[in-house]
Amino acid sequence: MSSSSESSNFIRDIIVADIESGKHEGRVQTRFPPEPNGYLHVGHAKSITLNFGLASEFGGKCNLRFDDTNPEKEETEYVDSIIEDVRWLGGDFGVKPLYASDYFQQIYDWAVELIRKGKAYVCDLSAEEVRATRGTPTEPGIESPYRNRSVEENLDLFERMRNGEFPDGARTLRAKIDMASPNFNMRDPVMYRILHAEHHRTGNKWCIYPMYDWAHGQCDSIEKITHSICTLEFEDHRPLYDWFVEQLGIFHPQQIEFDRLSLTYTLMSKRKLLTLVQQGLVESWDDPRMPTISGMRRRGYSAEGLRNFARNLGVSKTNGITELSRLEYYIREDLNRTATRVMGVLKPLKVVLTNYPEGQVEWMEAVNNPEDPSAGTRQVPFSRELYIEQDDFREVPPKGYYRLSPGKEVRLRYGYLVTCTDVVKDPATGEVTEIHCTIDPATKGGTTPDGRKVKSTIHWVSAAHAVTATVRLYDTLFTVENPGQAPEGGVFTDNLNPKSLEVITDAKLEPALANAKPLDRFQFERLGYFCVDKTSAADKLVFNRTVGLRDTWAKVEKKG
Ligand code: ATP
Ligand code: MG
Fold this sequence. Notes:
CATH superfamily of the largest domain: HUPs
CATH class of the largest domain: Alpha Beta
Bound molecules: adenosine-5'-triphosphate, magnesium ion
Distance between the termini: 41 Å
CATH architecture of the largest domain: 3-Layer(aba) Sandwich
Shape: elongated
Helix content: 10-25%
Strand content: 15-25%
């Protein structure tokens, strides 16, 4: 995996300079440190591509390390899904992931060392009181009355905290830094809290848990991370991380911050995504409308397409917002290269070819992928009764409509040129139920030996051979560009798009698709890219539309 295909980035430049100067003996060690409190989303894909990409580019390593310091919100389901997603994206973290919880003893021992050095103390203030005494940007905080406890008393109390002698929230361990620091993170931050909660890996061994700000840098140090790459909101925490490793005199990773990915019409807060799942507003974490990596995979996004998108974003020092269409561009670009073309009709209209012999079947040769000659061709059955898209016929064609209408000729892709001769309607509703056409037998394969021009080529499937499928079409999950922002007096879920899912239950597809397997990807000619759903089976085919053929959802599509 490479982090930067065409564009260079400033993090890469720092690493190149470090290698040249011999810092860390030229070693490159990065990490991707998710908290297992939800499924990974497309923002994480950016971080994964960057961290694993840089490691691989410079012959280094990238660890997958679970930041599992918060037992109340973490679950093994999340751990398993994260491992699967990182692997799928091509993140090579070796045989095993690592866990912050594996270092709990070392982190505890280092806390004891800081107490011994007079750099940490046990504080009896409640969380509420700690917050209330932190001060403001213009006023210093108030020193805790427990700040000057003796080392002996601190050591004793901290050990008793660990032994479970005190209830949740009764005491904390705090770093003794500077209550007047202009940086809030340096105003005696809490290092440990008491939490009698079962941990998904350490069980009930611990009833005190390190705070993220205390654990994170020490984990990086233990793993000898050379470049600790994180998002911009941690810039202000860097002085604290530096302070801890300097007090302890341990390996000092270099933290480098970059911009978080935000996408229009997309939410990336795991907390809010969890709300959608818990309230049943989406089917699951891997609902194809979700911005999760598992949802995108299920929808048909390719790992290569996601990585190309992430690489192309580059990194910067200011947070911005990226158009969703940019992501779709990279997905489409990759699928265009790789997806097999097929024909499928989503909203079928029966066509009878009145001059085509009953019972005759011709197998027409169709190209599997014009972008990839090695993909070869396949045979598609042609017969007297076909389905075409309802949209490809108009009894009274509007101006500029060149598809089928009475008296007009179109090309059936890989089939014949056909002319519409008759329209059959439901006498009760007046609805068109069937149309009759004649073929020109001289145009087999859709060729025109006489060189005549037809303005439209449409797709079709043979009625007798078609397989029926459920096809799910998606629109954005939210109707507004910034869905995290609730409308006035409302909640963010008010921004949900009621039309984000359309289910078609009787699409007609060419027979080769009967054997399609979950996660197979296709281009349905003229309709977009589709992926076989994970629930699909031979007797009940289910497809998800991955993305349209063009960037059409934002604009009104102009069809010829
Ligand atoms: P969220 O706020 O969505 O819950 P998080 O930052 O709490 O995300 P973590 O599990 O802590 O999620 O993230 C793991 C890594 O992924 C971190 O290094 C974080 O910086 C990075 N990351 C998370 N979200 C994004 C994003 N939107 N863009 C880029 N990197 C991200
Ligand atoms: Mg986090």
